[in-house]
Write a structure and sequence with these properties.
The chain is about 40% helix and about 20% strand. The protein contains ten helices and twelve strands.
Length: about 325
């Protein structure tokens, strides 16, 4: 009986065919994938070498961010900052001097107190923006610029607010600017020569008053004070002590002031016998001459005073002879 060798574990015909089918599918998929990638690469405005560098930079950036986060947890940035501060201190880059420019009314001591609060701080770590924000909180400061002048000096340029009037409060006199911003309390002596604003809310109307006076610029130098009456209109007091009552409304009051300026130019009303002028009625002016007419503003009559009020003579329109006064 002849001997035969039988091999076990060999692949049958079916298994071989299946393996060949899988290999063919892999080669086909790779070919399709490669063609898609090649198509995308053709559309991109980068070469293959440039893309490799971009991917490498992205990977390095991710690694750097991770390293920084790990170092932050370990306190390394704070240690590095402290070390830089030591180096700056040893090199003389330390805040010692402050150079303030542009101040006229503002007390510079307030600026020095703010700026030198961080004295001996390393110059690279002086927060100039935070310092500017603090300076802007001072009443006189409209704007400020802070810059470093190495090795040890801060330069502070200040733009001051300009005072235009004095607002009369219940218990004090307050210097204000063109926007009604309160600057500081002043004495009566220091308030002399400045336009005095009276009445509740008068300081908030300073811009409107300035616009009103533009209608008759010749009246501005002769004005002593302005009273905001009833939150609706102005009484103007001139340096002669005479009072002009204007009507309500910006347009009406501006027109009345222009008319008064024209009358004064022709008839010299200011400095004449009349002590008050009432222009609240349209197209006419009432004059108050002592002993002949009532005041411009009368308080509300009390009970029982109606009979007495009826006995008083009423204010009359100005006659031509009175206008010449």
């Amino acid at each position: 009986m002849s001997g035969r060798t039988i091999k076990r574990g060999g692949k049958g015909a079916r298994r071989a065919a299946a393996a060949q089918g899988k290999a063919q599918k892999v080669r086909t998929a790779r070919a399709k994938t490669g063609s898609v990638i090649d198509t995308l690469m053709a559309w991109l405005p980068f070469s293959e070498a440039q893309l490799h560098r971009i991917f490498l930079a992205m990977i390095l950036g991710i690694v750097a961010v991770g390293a920084w986060m790990a170092a932050s947890f370990a306190g390394v940035p704070a240690m590095a900052r402290d070390q830089v501060a030591v180096f700056a201190h040893d090199a003389g880059f330390e805040l010692h001097n402050v150079n303030v420019r542009g101040t006229n009314n503002l007390n510079e001591l307030k600026i020095y107190q703010i700026a030198l609060a961080d004295r001996n701080r390393a110059m690279p770590f002086v927060d100039v923006q935070a310092l500017r924000d603090k300076l802007l909180q001072l009443s006189w400061v409209e704007d400020a610029r802070v810059s470093r002048q190495l090795p040890d000096t801060l330069v502070i340029d200040v733009v001051e607010r300009k005072p235009v009037a004095v607002a009369q409060k219940a218990d004090r006199l307050m210097l204000i600017d063109k926007d009604g911003h309160e600057l500081e309390v002043v004495s009566a002596e220091r308030a002399k020569g400045k336009l005095l604003l009276k009445g509740p809310g008068a300081s908030r109307q300073v811009a409107a008053l300035s616009e009103l006076l533009e209608a008759a610029p010749a009246m501005r130098p002769q004005l002593r004070s302005a009273e905001w009456v009833g939150n609706r209109r102005w009484n103007l007091t001139f340096k002669t002590g005479q009072v002009l009552a204007l009507p309500e409304g910006a347009d009406k009051s501006a027109k009345a002031l222009m008319t008064f300026a024209q009358l004064d130019g022709r008839n010299r009303l200011l400095g004449g016998k009349a002590v008050a002028f009432d222009m609240r009625a349209p197209d006419r002016i009432y004059l108050r001459v002592p002993g002949r007419t009532d005041p411009v503003e009368q308080p509300a009559p009390k009970a029982g005073d109606s009979a007495k009020a009826a006995e008083k003579p009423a204010a009359k329109p100005a006659s031509k002879s009175e206008e010449k006064q």
